[in-house]
Write a structure and sequence with these properties.
Structural class: mainly alpha
Strand content: under 5%
Shape: flat
Radius of gyration: 16 Å
Largest sheet: none
Number of domains: 1
Order of helices and strands: HHHH
Number of strands: 0
C-alpha cells in the first residue's frame, strides 16, 4: 500500500497517464523532475532527434541513483530477513 501511495502520484505527475502538454504549467514543471518524467522527456527528445549528452546523463543519474538506492535498501532488508526498520 505504501508503494502504491508513492508510485501512482509520481506516475501521474511524471507523464505516464497525462502528457506534459495537457498539464497545468506548475504541475508539468514538477513532473519533469520525477524519475519517470525525466525518462519521458528524454525519450521525446530522442524520438524527435534532439540528442544532447548533458540532459541524457542527467536523466540517467536521476533515474539510476534512486533505483540503485532502492536496490541496496532491498538487498540489505533481504539479508536481515525482513527485520523491522
Amino acid at each position: 500500500m505504501l508503494s502504491s501511495t508513492i508510485i501512482f502520484p509520481l506516475m501521474m505527475l511524471g507523464g505516464s497517464f497525462f502528457p506534459f502538454e495537457y498539464m497545468p504549467a506548475w504541475m508539468a514543471a514538477i513532473g519533469r523532475w520525477t524519475p519517470n518524467g525525466l525518462g519521458v522527456a528524454r525519450m521525446k527528445d530522442l524520438l524527435y532527434g534532439d540528442v544532447a549528452l548533458a540532459p541524457i546523463a542527467t536523466a540517467a543519474l536521476g533515474i539510476g541513483v534512486p533505483a540503485a538506492a532502492a536496490f541496496l535498501f532491498s538487498a540489505r532488508k533481504l539479508r536481515r530477513r525482513f527485520a523491522v526498520l
